[in-house]
């Protein structure tokens, strides 16, 4: 089994496929001043989109989320 498949298999039953939490996302957002509807956020490596949902729920920003799978 190649490493990528192993990593995916390890995380596939998790709510999100990587480190972090809603609280961590909110903390990171706290460091960014002046978020509004003109703000653009690029969520690279979003996995199943756990943090993307938090971004969408807590900002008016334009969000683009991408992952390799």
Give descriptors for this structure:
single chain, 69 residues, alpha+beta, 2 strands
Question: Would you write up a description of this structure?
Answer:
This protein is an alpha+beta fold and 69 residues long. It has one domain. The protein is 38% helix and 14% strand. It contains 3 helices and 2 strands. It has helices spanning 3-11, 22-29, 50-58; strands at residues 40-44, 62-66. A two-stranded parallel ribbon has the order 1-2. Helix 3 (50-58) links the parallel strand 1 (40-44) and strand 2. The longest helix has 9 residues, at 3-11. It is elongated, with a radius of gyration of 14 Å. The two termini are 17 Å apart.
Per DSSP E runs of 2 or more residues, the count of β-strands stands at 2
Alpha carbon gap, first and last residue: 17 Å
* Major sheet characteristics: 2 strands, parallel
Q: Topology as H/E string?
A: HHEHE
How many domains make up the coordinates? 1
Count of individual helical segments: 3
Strand content: 5-15%
What is the typical, i.e. mean, pLDDT? 85
Q: What order do the strands of the largest sheet run in, or round the barrel if closed?
A: 1-2
Overall, the morphology is elongated
Question: Which structural class do the helices and strands define?
Answer: alpha+beta
């Amino acid at each position: 089994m190649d490493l990528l498949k192993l990593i995916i298999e390890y995380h596939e039953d998790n709510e999100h496929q990587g480190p972090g939490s809603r609280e961590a996302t909110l903390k990171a957002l706290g460091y960014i001043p002046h978020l509004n509807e003109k703000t653009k956020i690029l969520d690279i490596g979003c996995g199943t989109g756990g943090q993307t949902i938090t971004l969408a729920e807590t900002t008016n920003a334009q969000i683009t989320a991408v992952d390799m799978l």
